[in-house]
Amino acid sequence: MKIGLYFGTFNPIHVGHLIIANHMAEHSALEQIWMVVTPHNPLKKKDTLLDDYQRLQLVFLATEDYPKIRPSDFEFKLPQPNYTVNTLARLQDQFPQHEFSLILGEDNLKTFHKWKNYEAILENHELYVYPRIAADAANLQFENHPKIHVIDAPIVEISSTFIRDNLKLKKNVQPLLPAKVWAYIDHNNLYAK
User: Fold this and answer.
1) How far apart are alpha carbons 102 and 83 in whole angstroms?
2) Helix 52-63 to helix 179-188 angle, to the nearest 10 degrees?
3) Do the beta carbons of residue 18 and residue 8 sit within 8 Å?
4) Cα-Cα-Cα-Cα dihedral of 129, 55, 13, 171, to 10°?
C-alpha cells in the first residue's frame, strides 16, 4: 500500500490539515494518509504545546470519520531528537509491505536540501508537495525531479498559532476546527491560558 506521511505537531489539528490530507488521499497515487504526530522535544520548553497524547487524541477525533486517514504515534516510540530519515527507515523496517512517501508544504521543499540525509530520503521515497501562498519559488534544485510530485491541492492558510491565539482571546474559532476537535478543546478548556 502507498502510504503518505503527513508530519506535524497538530497543535491543534484543524480543517486545513484535513482538507490537505483528504485531497492527497483522493487525488494522488497515495492510498492512505498517516497523520504522524510529532512529539514534544524535551529540549524545548513550549508552553503552548499540548501533551503528546492529547494532540494524538485530537487527531484521532478529527480523522475517525475518514477511512483513508489515520492518526499515528509512531514517532513517540523513537529516541529524541529524531530526524525524518530515521523515522522513514524504522517505518520501512516495521512495515516492509508498505511504500512510504512524505507529504509536505511547498515552503518546506525550499529548505529540503538542509534536511539530514535528504538524498537518502529522495532515493527511497517520493514527496507529495502541496502549494502554500507564503512560499517563494520552490527550490530549483528539485524542479522536475521524478520523485517529487507537486499536487494541485487547495491552498489553505489556516494556522494552529492563529487558532491558539484566538482561543486565548476567547474568540470563536469553531469553524476552523473539526466539530469533535472543537468539542474536546471547549470541554477541556484547552489553550485558554
Assistant:
1) 13
2) 150
3) no
4) -150
Distance from C-alpha of 11 to C-alpha of 55, rounded to nearest angstrom: 6
Q: What are phi and psi of 104, to 5 degrees?
A: -145, 155
Three cell numbers written together for 48:
503552548
- CB distance 65 to 25 below 8 Å: no
Q: 144-171 in b/e burial notation, b at 16+ Cβ within 10 A?
A: eeeebeebebeebeeebeebbeebeeee
Q: Which of helix, strand or coil describes residue 50?
A: coil
* Pair 72, 35: CB distance under 8 Å: yes
15 neighbors 176 (Cβ within 8 angstroms): yes
Query: Using one digit for the tens of pLDDT, what is the confidence trace for 42-82?
Result: 555 567 789 999 999 999 999 999 999 999 999 999 988 88
For the record, the C-alpha cell of 148 comes out as 517529487
Q: The pTM is what?
A: 0.92
